Amino acid sequence: MPRCGCTASGCPCHIxxxxxxxxxxxxxxxxxxxxxxxxxxxxATGPTGPTGPVGATGSGGSGSVGATGPAGPTGATxxxxxxxxxxxxxxxxxxxxxxxxxxxxxxxxxxxNLTVPPNSSVAFPVGTVIEAFQYGAGQTTFVAGGGVxxxxxxxALKLTSQYAGASLRQRATDEWVIVGELTT
Length: 184
Description:
This protein is mostly beta strands. Helices cover 0% and strands 29% of the residues. A hairpin with a 2-residue loop joins strand 11 (165-172) and strand 12.
């Protein structure tokens, strides 16, 4: 462009196009030259011109960030679900309210019973879970107190052997489900 004095507003250069060739436009960035040849189709597109400067930033600006609000209160600490307190028994035993959420460890040398009392005697909340574990050689049998229903797969209510365990869960008043290492 600088050879013949072209500027952004136009180009004074003289172009000889030849026979049946039409040239239109002023050579400016707004109306560039367009060369047309009858029956010749379109030619290749020329290179894109440089990008213009970035405009100025508006005068509005950004507002400031507000202060952080106060922290909320810390919630209550829940029970540690990975640790169970044990209640070791050396003779047959009837569950008490404080056994809820614990493991009752039966360390008895001879056959023994672990009795689930009726709600009228011990009012366990529905949903209570108690673990039972046979530590001693004596086989532990689960026994239903008066009016209590014990449910297990196949009606099995005895722990299978020493070091066997089971979980008792109260699903309704006076109805308990036992799941674990059980036999009949």
